[in-house]
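User: Modeling request: complex.
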Amino acid sequence: MTRSKPHNHQAHNHQEAIRAARKAIGDSDSVWGLAETFKVLSDPTRLKIVLALLKEELCVLDIAALIGITDSAVSHQMRLLKTLRLVKQRKDGKMAFYSLEDEHIEDLIRVATRHISEKS
Amino acid sequence: MTRSKPHNHQAHNHQEAIRAARKAIGDSDSVWGLAETFKVLSDPTRLKIVLALLKEELCVLDIAALIGITDSAVSHQMRLLKTLRLVKQRKDGKMAFYSLEDEHIEDLIRVATRHISEKS
DNA sequence: TTAACATCTGAACATCTGCTCAATCGTTTC
DNA sequence: GAAACGATTGAGCAGATGTTCAGATGTTAA
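Assistant: Request completed. Predicted assembly structure:
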């Protein structure tokens, strides 16, 4: 080929696209909060803990035996979950029972599960 | 106090609690997949990208300018999002336009947003 | 008071993550 | 062809993350 047709690519206004997208993202505070919410459930250990607590309250050693990690590791994670208000603690003697404090978590898990099951 | 009442704590069957919870968690494969889904959206950068793409397709440089990171960083993230089937690519000349491939993501974000807004 | 038990805490560690930098590839334009 | 441009890739790095270990705290039982 000595000559080729000129390529005409679709016009694309970068300035406008960026401005519109910036609106869609919203303020960075809400983005950060959203990301944090997803982050809690992004660790398999924490996710297992939350899944287990959907049914009933559990003590630290039960969770540790259930997942297969140290009671220390469980305690660390529970502190984080408690700080984020996902879980509440009930003390009974030397034992500490944890249960879910958040009702919306189950919805999140349900939607995410549906999302996975409909993958090719 | 010279004498104190005997403490009677609520009975708790560890074996039974663990067995019940193990059922609630399910197989470890599904847990891993769930965690991975949440993990994609747990990074502020990726979350911003997804939020921006909810409205319209964007090219790499637009996203880079929008978020304030290198085009290289964007490209790295887009490869990940493409691998996970969250995004699809359309090439036009030297530009690469990305758009959302997954319809469920919006639901996930909506539920998570509601979850945040109803916090004390 | 001891001893045993459940939980919690801080430190150290290895691993993972997301970023930038530099170089490369593919396309378009001169 | 050469230069410009957009996108991609790999290496390297700093920071975050999850775990274990050792020790401390608090509670119950002997």
